[in-house]
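hey all, quick one before standup. I had two proteins in the batch that finished overnight and I want to keep them in one place so we stop losing track of which output belongs to which input. First protein below, input sequence then structure tokens straight from the run.
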Amino acid sequence: MDTTLEQALAESNRRVIFENQREKLLETLLADLFYAFDGGYFKLGPELFIEIKINLAEGKKSFPLLDIHMNPIDIENPEEFYKTTRSLYNEAINKYRINLAKLKRSKNTKNLVEIYLEDDDIVE
């Protein structure tokens, strides 16, 4: 086979693997952006953080929040809840950012596959 054709096929294969690995990283991120708390399930993100901050700014010591299933969940210690959810959110985003950067730096197919296989070693 012509070396140019071989190189083109190798690059095409690398790009397909890159996209598959990036999709797996994104799926992991989306899973990490959910938080189970007191029987509720919350999606971590700006909307949740703003709602918590508004209630704190109004001086509320506890308040209900609707989880993703529209169930009201009482937040008894909103400052601690805010710190925990922000920390989990930042960890998830940082983990995704670091591993996506590793993926982008990979120049060959073997390295692309190894990044996802090292899932246990993913920086958190």
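OK second protein, same deal, sequence then tokens:
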Amino acid sequence: MGDLKQLKEEYWKVLSRTRKSGRIAQSVKERVEAGWDRFDEDVVMEALRIHMSRYPGYKESYTVGIMRNLQKRKDAGGRVKTENKFNQFKQHDYDFDAIQKALEKNVWTDAEGGK
């Protein structure tokens, strides 16, 4: 269960990038996760991995479609895991505001004669 909790945290961190504010309310997270209860745990975990690796710019409603398709495949006797290791890497989390400020500071410093 700890693995699922960690995966959810990573998922919500990736999905927060789909918001202008960069944040998702806790009530939204709870409501969405409550809808996942109708799917098997392995289906949920694989759907979260698929969404993060292939569709990071899509909102959380897209994940339910992935779960529905994986659950259908599992119920029909197929595999849940996609076994594609090409694009499975840990997402980096950058503070773009801090990077932009540092770049602006360097640009202005250099333009002013190397202060």
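Flagging for whoever picks this up: The radius of gyration is 19 Å. Residues 53 and 90 are 9 Å apart (CA to CA).
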